[in-house]
Design brief:
By secondary structure, the chain is of the alpha+beta class. The strands form five sheets. The protein has an eleven-stranded mixed sheet with strand order 5-6-4-3-7-8-2-1-10-13-12, with helices on one face. Strands 15-16-22-18-19 form a five-stranded antiparallel sheet, with no helix packed on it. The protein has a five-stranded antiparallel sheet with strand order 20-21-17-24-25, with no helix packed on it. The termini are far apart. InterPro entries: PIG-T (IPR007245). One of its GO terms (biological process) is attachment of GPI anchor to protein.
Length: 791
């Protein structure tokens, strides 16, 4: 290929040299005649056209024409001037050749092109090599990163194994410490039991010696008294039962009696370990708590309304009717389904109508009901609250409640729970509270506490002789003869705060034991009767406390009762059966302290609230709530839920008003007595009320039960819960006598019409012919003999 290109270049250069020499000859040689000119043209043509065809015919034919033309040009000067000369033609041919020659590439250009191609190929090759090297480096980096990640994973695995080993070691250490603590606790308990047995034997020996020296030795011993040689065995360490009764004379002349029964069991219901052995703790409640994973259970049954302005604050408040609120454990997945099953089970245990609790009267508060036991639970999705304001409390609710007590109603303070006396009272409330509590002050271990409370208010003016004197027998028709043998503490407290020197009334039998306790922000003084001491019963072996007023006319003016710092009222306003308003009044009687309260209102779905009409005012000014949680209702699915955090100014009345519209129910949704009205549950007000005296924040075992239910975390305030009155609202009610009349009329018409038609269709009719006369019968006889047809 290269040789061919070289030969071509050489041939092209030779032709250029020949052409250039021919042109020089033409310029130097003058034209003298026709021959010279013809010869010159022939040479030029031969040089210019070296590759012309060698056909002789063509060449011979062209020559005469050229000679003829030259002869013509030499002959006449006029003819040669009009045509181009031969020199001009040669110049034109040279210019044509010059135009054609640059189009052909030279060798240098071809070499340059080859070099460029080579450089391009080399560049592409180098580029490919660089790309390959980059890919190799990237692959190496990725492999190195993978190795690093593998090493890190191995390190993390080793660290996890180390952590697991450390956890196992810590668990083993904890188990060892627990075992040591249990051993020490058992040793302490054994020491305590031995000390208690020695004290019991000493006490029984002392009582025997005293009885021998008594003059009235003819009194026979009671059947329930234990023998002197056999002291009662103390309760085991796993269970503990306490009972107490608080009696407080009210300023209105009524008597307030509060029973407290507390059972503590060192069992972990919230763990995975199943509890199967029961002694003092009731098995029915223990199985319910374990099966439904209940953290806290609070249930109350109340008949009547607590009059705060006349009686003061109760130890444990409760709304009229039935109230139930439960905290479930975080292991429960279907809270609503578990709540429904739990209400049905509790309905059977307490013989109540708790099975009527469903989604239409159940709410999920967001801030009102905090856990009363240990543990800071913040997820309110495990909380459910419901009320039945129309629930009636009677003996069938009291009987299963008493069966939960270790001694039942056979011994101890429970012998005073006589149903015909308890329900013949102004106010009656019984409750059950189950919660986890700390077992020791350091709260290293937890226990499950069951607290049963019963509060009753007796109106002695209506039940007796119009006197303010009272006694245990007058209130309960029974007296106390012994403490519950299973109780570690059994005491009776009588409030004597208003009678410090015994000037107004006299309490008998007198007791030298006095104690003080801070209850509801006030320091109170109580006379204490310890039923575990035989000296409390005296020689008659029966305790019947009696209060006598020293004024013979019984018209002693009692001291002025301090107004409660917080109480509330609620009522329905409006006219007609279409619209109305709910007014809630909250009173703060503190002269100079303002404090916040949390208001919860659950309104049924058939009262459709207009939340845009909600107004809150204090002292004639708007009181803007700092927190509002509102959940609208759904017809026949869920009620309204309204929670507000309000700031109560000192010595003020805060009014909360909201408008509503009554809905028209289906005729199957009305109660059997629709004209009586529909009940709306009480509103709940929770607050930290300023205390008059410093509260005791240490939860010690020496405190009375009635003063240690709500946890106290501040010395300057105490927790209080207040319930308003339930509402009775009339709804648009159809005339249910009209359907009765229509049913009676329709049944009458159907009976008459259908009966007549049925008789006509099913009865057979027969025509009775009258009997023939005597002449006709004789004639027929004659015709029969003659063979003639009868008449």
């Amino acid at each position: 290929m290269a040789a061919r290109r070289c030969l071509g270049l050489w041939f092209f250069l030779i032709t250029l040299c020949v052409v250039s020499t021919g042109a020089d000859v033409l310029h130097t040689t003058p034209v003298t005649g026709t021959e010279s000119s013809a010869a010159g043209t022939e040479t030029v043509v031969a040089r210019e056209l070296p590759e012309a065809p060698s056909d002789p015919g063509e060449h011979t034919a062209a020559e005469p024409t050229r000679e003829g033309e030259q002869n013509d040009r030499t002959r006449g000067g006029e003819q040669t001037l009009g045509q181009p000369t031969r020199e001009e033609e040669q110049e034109q041919e040279k210019t044509r050749e010059g135009e054609q020659t640059p189009a052909q590439p030279t060798r240098e250009e071809e070499e340059e092109e080859e070099e460029q191609e080579q450089t391009r190929g080399e560049e592409e090759f180098t580029r490919e090599e660089e790309e390959e090297e980059l890919t190799r480096e990237e692959e190496e980096l990725t492999t190195e990163e993978e190795e690093l990640t593998r090493e890190e994973e191995e390190q993390t695995r080793e660290e996890e194994e180390l952590t697991t080993e450390e956890e196992e070691l810590t668990t083993e250490e904890e188990e060892l410490t627990r075992e040591e603590e249990e051993q020490t606790r058992e040793e302490e308990e054994e020491q305590q039991t031995t000390a208690q047995q020695e004290e019991q034997t000493k006490r029984w020996e002392a009582t025997e010696l005293e009885e021998e020296h008594v003059h009235d030795a003819a009194v026979p011993p009671l059947a329930g008294d234990p023998p002197a040689a056999d002291p009662p065995s103390p309760p085991p360490s796993k269970d503990d039962f306490q009972e107490e009764l608080v009696i407080r004379p009210l300023h209105s002349g009524d008597i307030y009696a509060s029973f407290q029964f507390r059972t503590v069991w060192d069992a972990d219901f919230m763990g995975d370990q199943k509890v199967s052995h029961y002694r003092l703790f009731p098995k029915s409640l223990g199985q319910v708590i374990t099966k439904f994973s209940v953290r806290e259970l609070h249930i109350s049954f109340t008949q009547g309304y607590w009059r705060t302005m006349q009686w003061g604050q109760p130890y444990l408040p409760s709304p009229p009717g039935a109230e139930l609120w439960v905290w479930f454990q975080d292991t429960v997945t279907d809270v609503d389904g578990t709540w429904k099953e739990l209400t049905n089970v509790l309905s059977g245990i307490f013989c109540a109508s708790l099975n009527f609790i469903d989604s239409t009267n159940t709410v999920q508060p967001s801030a009102s009901f905090k856990p009363l036991g240990i543990g800071n639970v913040t997820d309110h999705s495990f909380l459910r609250y419901a009320t039945l304001p129309r629930e009636i409390v009677c003996t069938e609710n009291l009987t299963p409640w008493k069966k939960l007590l270790p001694c039942g109603s056979k011994a101890g303070l429970s012998v005073l729970l006589k149903s015909e006396k308890l329900f013949h009272s102004t106010f009656h409330s019984q409750a059950v509270h189950v919660r986890p509590v700390c077992q020791d002050p350091q709260c290293r271990t937890t226990s499950m506490e069951l607290r049963q409370t019963l509060n009753v208010v007796f109106d002695l003016h209506t039940s007796g002789q119009g006197k303010r004197e009272w006694s245990l027998f007058k209130m309960f028709s029974r007296t106390l003869t012994e403490a519950c043998p299973l109780a570690s503490s059994s005491k009776v407290y009588v409030d004597v705060t208003d009678n410090p020197q015994g000037e107004q009334f006299e309490l008998s039998p007198a007791t030298p034991l006095l104690t003080q306790a801070v209850v509801l922000g006030d320091r109170r003084t109580y006379s204490v009767y310890d039923l575990t001491q035989q000296a409390s019963f005296g020689s008659s072996r029966s305790l019947n406390m009696l209060l006598r007023w020293k004024n013979s006319h019984n018209n002693v003016v009692p001291p002025v009762m301090l107004r409660p710092l917080l109480h509330s009222e609620r009522y329905v306003a409006g006219y007609g059966l279409q619209a109305g308003e709910i007014h809630t009044l909250i009173y703060n009687h503190h002269p100079y302290r303002a404090f916040p309260v949390l208001l919860l209102s659950a309104v049924p779905w058939y009262l459709r609230l207009y939340i845009h009409t909600l107004t809150v005012s204090s002292k004639g000014k708007d009181n803007r709530p700092s927190y509002i949680h509102y959940q609208p209702s759904k017809d026949r699915e869920r009620p309204h839920l309204l929670e507000m955090l309000l700031q109560l100014p000192p010595n003020s009345v805060t009014e909360v008003t909201v408008e509503f519209e009554r809905a028209l129910l289906k005729w199957t949704e009305y109660t059997p007595d629709p004209n009586h009205g529909f009940y709306v549950g009480s509103s709940v007000i929770s607050a930290l009320v300023p205390s008059v005296v410093a509260m005791d924040t240490n939860s010690t075992l020496d405190r009375p039960l009635f003063s240690s239910f709500f946890p106290c975390k501040e010395e300057a305030s105490y927790f209080m819960r207040v319930y308003t009155e339930p509402l009775l609202v009339n709804l648009p009610t159809p005339d249910f006598s009209m359907p009765y009349n229509v049913i009676c009329l329709t049944c009458t018409v159907v009976a008459v019409g259908y009966g007549s038609l049925y008789n006509l269709l099913t009865r057979t009719f027969q025509v009775d012919e009258p009997s023939p006369g005597l002449a006709k019968r004789i004639a027929n006889v004659i015709r029969r003999f003659r063979g003639v047809p009868l008449l």
